[in-house]
Design brief:
mainly alpha
Length: 127
Amino acid sequence: MGLTGFGVFFLFFGMILFFDKALLAIGNILFVAGLAFVIGLERTFRFFFQKHKMKATSFFLGGVFVVLIGWPIIGVVLEIYGFFLLFRGFFPVVVGFIRRIPVLGSILNLPFISAYVDKVGESNTMV
């Protein structure tokens, strides 16, 4: 969990510091390594290389590669798109969890926000 947390921290910090290549590269490596340690190598490979997730995996890992070779803005855009394609099955669970948190749940239930959150919370694909 620590590697994944530090990876997210370095990715966020690298974007805050105007897409610093070194921080983004460290964040990418730590995030992927942390994910592999948390769920195991075999399950990580099965998750990333499922037939219906190949497009998402290619965008995500392609973005990691583009950041590592030195084009951070393009790489981060590719990573974000791939991340949303890979993990879109988890978004309904996350939205349901956030709606149960007292202050955040009331914010998500505001009329102009709830319509958008309801669309994000719907998923047609299984994890």
